[in-house]
Automatic annotation (TrEMBL):
GO molecular function: L-aspartate oxidase activity
Name of the coding gene: nadB
Name recorded for this polypeptide: L-aspartate oxidase
EC number: 1.4.3.16
Subcellular location: Cytoplasm
Amino acid sequence: MIPQYLVDFDLQTLPCVETDVIVIGSGIAGLYTAIEAGKDHNVIMITKNALLESNTRYAQGGIAAVTSEDDSPAYHREDTLMAGAGLCSSAAVDVLVNEGPDNVQELIRLGTAFDVENGELALTQEGAHSRRRILHANGDATGFEIVRALAAQVRMHERVQVWEHHFVIDVLNDGNECIGVLLQRPDGQRVYVKAAATILCTGGAGQLYRYTTNPEVATADGIAMAYRAGAQIRDMEFIQFHPTALCYPGAPRFLISEAVRGEGAVLRNIKGERFMEKYHELLELAPRDIVARAIVSEMEETKSTFVYLDITHEPEDMIKHRFPTIYETCMNYGLDMAADWIPVAPAAHYMMGGVKTDLNGESSVPRLFACGEVSSTGVHGANRLASNSLSEAIVFGKRIVNRIRELVPLVAPAAIAYQEQDRTGVPKQAMIERRLKLQKVMVRYAGLRRNEALLHKGLDELKRQLSIFNSELSKKEEFEFANMLTSCLLVTQAALERKESRGAHYREDYPQKDDAVWRKHLLLHRQHEIMEEFSDDV
């Protein structure tokens, strides 16, 4: 049983800080939204780590938006809908492709220095895009450049306070309305932060899996908090595995950007054979789920733990200029991209599902918003089109702020208390061991390829960890584990319910897409079993 709140509290006895807007998280979604909200609201931005630490920081490929004359929002829309495998919201996609370009120009105005060639924005192409529309910065360090520029703006902003190394334990409700958050300061003190609007920008869920391109902070906190608060959670079965993460002894699962394939890299099995022609007409630029499963099939057929990414046929100067970060990282492990084939394998990368929102970013709980990877706006459907995520964050971040301007002031009382019976101390087993076990369960039973027997085993294993919710939690690692366990249960249950293969969700026992029965979303809610919602007509 997952409780409504992770800890006991009485708001009348806690210190209270009031503000207009709370932003939780400091990736592109949090930073951009805080800057926009700070134009006419007082904002407290809360991040559990340092300001610059987020998934965005490690984003390499770029941001997708129509900026060239041979492209159009209609083309971008078509590509997004195709990748989404029938589950995109057509209205949300229209918002993204039409409002993305102006918001990218705003990023530039705020100091983001995208790469330029011959006086024009430099563009590249990635998988499933029909045009070159991916803007990038410093070759393959787009995310870092964006957060650098936005963080500098936030630091200088008179109406935005930044609380680093503070952990938001739970979203607080009065009736069905969000009234703020309960957080824990670095010294362990707990504080009630009251606000008229609370925006989850907490990022993704890569750390649910043993092998991931995501940093340590990506522990699905926002999804779990929203679920406990009674918000609807949608499409949790759709986890995108990036096809090409570095797979080399002693090296982390470092992302080898899809843009490398966009610039001509090919995939080879350990026999040196190109193989993508067996799986899709777009070869290496097929949608990510197809490429990832093709790689797994080749690994199984050749009894290997990796395949090779080969860009050695391209000029060395181009490789160094276009992919300086990837080149340098590979060189640190003795791999020269210009001369060596790079060993790669799929790794958990992006969560398509999350907190269900409307076109203004508001969840089913009034005054609770979600933006970025934590949200499910309907843009990505069953499979995210490459580099649409950064665009989604800024487009819907601005829409959230416009909606907040319409809210009436919060008048909810703070006389709320919560007490769970019989909380005990956390078991002495190291949290790092429990976390690793959880990640291994997800890889083994709810990974890239799934079936009913494996998913049932996974659920059984996860349910054995439910005792954490009867424990007295006090440390960041304990809160993160509780959030990860909650999200793992949601992913596995949704994957079990969807008896078809679609986009990033692949069932070996139901290998075909079934539009007649399953062209619909799965909604999860704390007070109910899984509920179904039919998708928009696309």
